[in-house]
Design a protein that fits this description.
There is one protein chain. This protein is α/β, with parallel strands linked by helices. The protein is built from 13 helices and 16 strands. The strands form 3 sheets. An 8-stranded mixed sheet has the order 9-10-12-11-13-14-15-16, sandwiched between helices. Strands 2-1-6-7-8 form a 5-stranded parallel sheet, sandwiched between helices. Strands 3-4-5 form a 3-stranded antiparallel sheet. Helix 5 links the parallel strand 6 and strand 7. Helix 2 packs parallel to helix 7. The longest helix is centred in the N-terminal third of the chain and has 23 residues. The chain is elongated, with a radius of gyration of 25 Å. The two termini are 31 Å apart.
């Protein structure tokens, strides 16, 4: 077993694909095409990591009579068809039996294609590098059909990418794609599912939700402007149809320009969350270490900034939350206990919630504490702080990450965890807006 579930597998595959020469040099970047249903959760992570559009390639396995999981072929959109003659001969399937199964699968294929596309045309593939993604390859029939289909739709380069495949998969599928990428290629291989702890069936609703999220939230239009604060200008970013706003709290004077905060903010924008990045201290004040570790000062300024933001026209009426890093986490918890702030959620990254110990029992906002696994002292401080919280809370430890989350993939994990927490607790439906609840 290699993967907890398809989401983890997708992140591992995305890491393997980052900067790989297999993707070629397409200046437009790749298009990610998933094989539903199981390939979609994997492809979502890949598309997000590459900043690529996501589409589906609807393929149906033609299973042998009595052994539906054993593919004797596959059929796809646009009339794509693959026959695995080796399996057909070994099982002794007659042409009539094959045709009967094929007819059933084509009917189901048409139903799914109509449901998944909802009237939308496929993403144009002409002249593009196309990354065909599934949750794994076994016989290769469906992967072969998918590669043929995207090639017929004009793809100039086809890359087949999966989390797991048999060790000889490239020879089995020779010629199907221009390049092959797999995270694991074990010599012993019975079925794709044996390499996942959770290999439950993906439902149509999950596919639809993933496609909607990828299509509408991947590259949102974001309005950016500044707002004057006593400690300097705040950077405001408001995606179209914003469903909430997150104020970033940082105690060292680098909140507005911190590359780490900017990367997290970009991830939140894809969830429809506006962001406010600013400094709790002036550059001069940040040189005074006492002020950096003063939760009352930092928390008071965050509370005042919150009042300003809540009356700022583009953000008025939106539920809000706090994202606090290091001592900024203490500021967030301190401000959350003020009677007139009431944030909807709090996320702490490598935070020092212990500095706000006196106010922890007063916090009512759902609070997520994220700590690097290699940051031992801070892990323990967060464990103790969580025991004193009386609100909904969670502690997420990122394995191997240090205090600044500089390790490969660590900050992306933080951003995903924060986005999921805020999306769960802050999303609100506005009149005429269909984004909430996706």
């Amino acid at each position: 077993m290699y993967f907890t579930d398809r989401t983890e597998a997708g992140r591992a595959l995305a890491a393997a694909l980052t900067d790989t020469p297999a993707l070629g040099a397409d200046p437009q970047g790749p298009v990610v095409v998933a094989l539903p249903r199981g390939g979609v959760p994997v492809a979502v992570e890949v598309a997000a990591a590459l900043g690529a559009p996501l589409d589906v390639c609807v393929i149906r396995k033609v299973g042998t009579p009595g052994q539906p999981e054993l593919a004797m072929g596959a059929v796809g959109e646009d009339g794509a068809r693959v026959v695995n003659q080796t399996v057909v001969d070994a099982v002794g399937v007659t042409p009539e039996e094959f045709a009967a199964v094929e007819a059933r699968e084509r009917a189901e294929l048409a139903r799914r294609a109509a449901a998944y596309r909802e009237g939308r045309p496929p993403v144009p593939l002409t002249g593009r590098t196309v990354l065909v993604v599934d949750d794994g390859v076994a016989t290769g029939s469906t992967a072969l059909a998918a590669c043929r289909l995207v090639r017929a739709r004009g793809a100039s380069r086809v890359v087949l990418a999966v989390p797991v495949a048999p060790h000889d998969w490239t020879s089995r599928l020779s010629g199907a794609a221009d390049a092959f990428v797999a995270v694991h290629t074990p010599s012993r291989f019975m079925a794709v599912g044996e390499f996942y702890r959770d290999f439950r069936q993906v439902e149509d609703g999950e596919v639809l939700a993933a496609l909607a999220r990828a299509g509408r939230l991947r590259h949102p239009e974001v309005d950016t402007h500044e707002l004057a604060f006593p400690t300097g200008p705040a950077a405001i970013a408001v995606p179209e149809h914003a469903v909430g706003v997150v104020l970033f709290a940082h105690g060292s004077g680098s909140g507005r320009g911190s590359p780490r905060n900017l990367r997290v903010a970009e991830r939140l924008h894809r969830e429809g969350l506006a962001t406010v990045l600013f400094d709790l201290l002036t550059p001069y004040e940040a040189e005074d270490r006492w002020k950096v570790f003063d939760p009352g000062l930092l928390g008071g300024r965050l509370a005042e900034a919150t009042r300003t933001v809540r009356h700022h026209p583009p953000l008025t009426g939106l539920p809000f939350g706090y994202f606090g890093a290091s001592t900024g986490a203490a500021a967030a918890l301190w401000a959350a206990a003020e009677p007139d702030t009431a944030p909807g959620a709090i996320v702490s990254r490598g935070g020092r919630p212990d500095l706000a110990q006196a106010r922890l029992p007063l916090v009512s906002a759902p609070t997520l504490l994220i700590v690097g696994g290699a940051d031992g002292e801070v892990v323990e401080l967060n464990r103790q702080a969580r025991s004193e919280l009386r609100c909904e809370s969670a502690l997420q430890i990122v394995p191997g990450a240090g205090h600044l989350f500089e390790e490969p993939g660590a900050l992306e994990t933080v951003a995903d965890l924060a986005a999921q927490w805020f999306a769960r607790h802050l999303a609100v439906r506005r009149p005429g807006d269909d984004r909430a609840g996706r």
